[in-house]
Amino acid sequence: MRRWWGVAVGAAVALVLPFAATSGAAPGGPDALRADLDRILADPRLDGAHAGVVVRDPETDQVLYSRQAGYRVTPASNAKLFTAAAALEALGPDYRFRTDVVSDARRSGPVLDGDLFLRGTGDPTVLAADYDRLAAQVADSGIREVRGTLRTDATWFDDVPLGAGWAWDDEPYYYAAPVSALTAAPDTDFDAGSAKVRVTPTTPGKPADLALEPSTGVVQLENRTTTAAQGARPNVTVERGHGSSRVVVSGTVPAGGAPSEDFTSVPDPAAYAADLFTRALAAHGVSVRPGAPGAAPAGARALAARESMPLRDLLVPFLKLSNNEHAEVLVKSMGRVLRGQGTWDAGLAVLSEKLRGLGVDPRVLRMVDGSGLSALDAVTPEQLTLLLDNARQRPWFREFQDALPVAGEQDRMVGGTLRNRMGGTPAAGNVHAKTGSMTGVTSLSGYVTGADRRPLVFSVVFNDFVADPPNDLQDAIAVRLAQYDGANDQARGVPAVPHPRTSAERGLECSWVKGC
To answer: Residues 53, 147: one domain?
Structure first.
């Protein structure tokens, strides 16, 4: 997909669609709901587009609304619902990643007479501070000199870094960072395989100061920035060349203003991890030379180790912030743990197997990655709702539901990609749903409790629209479901839904541009 820029239009506006005229008595019960959803979907922005919508009552197994339910559509990040559920089934909520430092070299006092290996199993949550703690463990063991080299062992996964069908022009951006068994993240959003670029103004007419966070030599910054006059609007672009480690930073920042921050993916996550660890070792008084990648020898003893948070906790940044790297790491981990191969093919085979056990028919799906970043993915709204329905019976359901974005909740790690949507409506604090956005695609699937306190599951997937993403129509559907009153329901027309618009790239998840 390509990156498109939207236009800032200020504060929230209200969506008020025309109430279609009806004849005779107003419908009631499910008929009233169907009439209102039909009105919402009659919006002219959907002319010529695909609009798949399914609403289910999981307690009665009744389908309350269905439109193009079995048609395959591009799900965007709604694909993460399949990945999360399959990972919970295959790996379990307590699954943890392990990163360790090992060697089979002989030890002579403070000298290690051989190679040191940094070995990973895909942990996307390792920060520079964690590599520092690993280095401290090595130093605390008494080692001060490594006469061999530091070698990186990322063999838990294969060496294919990018997913099938990922757009080449997305490669420089952190939401499409390469996948590796050994990596690092710049902050606690855990955007593995990326680094933060900080642009600090100096004096008008002079270049800004540039810095990488964490500090690393695996990418090189080219400074094409200028410090503008005070009061100017910041306008900075960070671009890594295709297949390159050179990052060009251009544009302007105003004198006296706050630093501007953006992100870049790194071309080689394992080299990134090794660079951070080498620097940490030096800071703790341990000397070592960089070496070539390679698998640690069998029987190597552990000198330091770190375990990640359990999967139940990783689900929060994964689903709330729609983290693509987390999805792909989970797919490859499923393949490695259950099939002995850390590949997309093996992991997707496990995913299909686990989905079948969750009542989903993998024969009608096409999943080529775990995140939905690929435009080759194809699913149906019907299968999305079957997954959501059947997940309610699993022992891990509470963790799964709680990890979904919650409408109108301003805490980023609660509201996630829905924090600025549906506020002040019956859906606020009620709708738990996964968003999905890419050019020409927007999706929203999840759970809502109706006015009669009955739970509902729903999926709304729009494809092939050509204007701005009609997320407001999805929100109107979710709000109307929150108003649904079962057999006593009456036609209400189309809800008025606050629809904030911000200056973000059109068609991408708001979390991918740090807009929510």
So the answer is: no
Six-digit token pair at 425? Answer: 């409506």
The Cβ of residue 78 has, within 10 Å, a number of other Cβ atoms equal to 30
Q: Are residues 129 and 205 in the same domain?
A: no
Give the SS3 label for residue 46.
Answer: helix
Q: For position 125, which CATH number holds? A: 3.50.80.20
Nearest alpha-carbon partner for 37 in 340, 349, 378, 381: 381
Enter the pTM of the model: 0.93
Residue 164 in domain: no
pLDDT digits (tens, 9 = 90+) for 136-169: 999 999 999 999 999 999 999 999 999 999 999 8
Tally of CB atoms within 10 A around 466: 10
How many residues does the structure list for the chain? 516
- Quote the CA–CA distance of 180 and 332 in Å, as a whole number: 10
* 108 belongs to the catalytic site: no
The answer to whether residue 371 is catalytic is: no
Given 260, 265, 308, 322, the catalytic residue: 322
> 34 is in which domain, residue-wise?
4-94+312-513
Neighbours of 213 (CB within 10 A): 14
- Establish whether 244 is a catalytic residue: no
Q: Which residues pair with 151 in a beta bridge?
A: 117
Tokens of 479: 């709000």
Catalytic pick from 77, 308, 371, 443?
A: 77
Domain identity same for 69 and 51: yes
Q: Note whether 456 and 471 are same-domain residues.
A: yes
Do the Cβ atoms of 259 and 253 come closer than 8 Å?
yes
Catalytic residue from among 80, 196, 354, 434: 80
In a domain, 391, yes or no: yes
Q: Which helix (H) or strand (E) holds 224?
A: strand 220-228
Residues 172-212: tens digit of each pLDDT = 999 999 999 999 999 999 999 999 999 999 999 999 999 99
